[in-house]
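Section: protein folds

Sequence with per-residue tokens
===
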Amino acid sequence: MTAVNDRCRMNRQNLGRGRGGAWEVIRMGIMEFEVCRHGRDARWVVRLGNSVYGAYLDKEQALLDAVDAAREALQCGRQAQVWVRERANSARIF
């Protein structure tokens, strides 16, 4: 259990650095990780609030990272969701 608590503490510190919008989402309640295409080259990104959590070459990697981050948040006692947004459709997958 100590390892989980240490990881939760490190995640809070890392998310708080330079990602102001993301940190506000975390303090307010549910962490919503959004997987979507972004930019001219339409790369897949994971967003947390108004911040980009990560950029990926394909959708699968973005989904895997978003679900992994949401699971870590749940282990830390946070509520978390993962959403996939494609054009006009949205779906909650976690």
About this structure: Residues 2-92 form one domain.
